[in-house]
Amino acid sequence: MSAQDRIDHESLRVICQALGGASSLEVLADNMNGLLTSTLGIKGSTLFVLNPNTRELELLASFGLSNQFLNKGPVIADKSLAQAMEGQSVIIPDTTVEKDLQYPEETHAEGIKAIVSLPMLGSGEVLGVLRLYHDQVWEVSQHDHDILLLLAENIGLAMRYTRVLNALQSIWDIVSSLPDGWERF
């Protein structure tokens, strides 16, 4: 399959509106996975968040993939398409010839023929990865690659923003529940 653009201006507008309108990290992740899967016409999508203590990529949300595939085992950041953890995109247009998959048997059993892994950055730090899975060999166009990279970065920024908002809301809730007179201290 030759590389063709799959993301047009209208699709990008809808995706960006969903990105900006999310009320929580989970809603953001669910919206992004569903929209990207349908817009790109691919098998599925996942958002993983890096656990800095274990160096595992923890599943935040997924769309289009089986529970068996999602529960295949821990996704180790330094073993699973590790270049994404260095801030680089990883494109595997054909998994049948790729030798560097952490779970090759499970990938093939799931019917995944192509993977795109993009770093989600927040303030220059890799917070996790956006992974796109296709059931066909997939040559990603440069146009779509550039948009997906920007989108992954914006998801990272939205994740950081959502975390800050949630922390501020928790602080506000605590301060609001203090008895009268405590606010002076």
Overview of this structure, please?
The protein is of the alpha+beta class and 185 residues long. The protein has helices at residues 9-20, 25-40, 67-70, 104-109, 142-176, and strands spanning 44-51, 56-63, 75-76, 90-92, 114-122, 125-134. The N and C termini lie far apart (66 Å). It has one domain: Beta-Lactamase (2-Layer Sandwich). 30% of the residues are buried. It is globular and about 70 Å long. Strand 5 (114-122) and strand 6 (125-134) form a beta hairpin. It has a six-stranded antiparallel β-sheet. The chain contains five helices and six strands, in the order H-H-E-E-H-E-E-H-E-E-H.
Based on the model shown, name its key terms.
single chain; alpha+beta; Beta-Lactamase
Concise summary:
With 185 residues, the chain is α+β, with helices and mostly antiparallel strands. It is built from five helices and six strands, in the order H-H-E-E-H-E-E-H-E-E-H. The protein has helices spanning 9-20, 25-40, 67-70, 104-109, 142-176; strands at 44-51, 56-63, 75-76, 90-92, 114-122, 125-134.
- The largest sheet has its strands arranged as 3-2-1-6-5-4
What's the rounded overall pLDDT mean?
90
Q: Any idea what the shape is?
A: globular
State the CATH architecture: 2-Layer Sandwich
- SS field, number of helical segments: 5
- The helical percent reads 25-40%
Succession of helices and strands: HHEEHEEHEEH
Organism: Dethiosulfatarculus sandiegensis
Domain GAF: 24-169
Pfam families: GAF
Protein name: GAF domain-containing protein
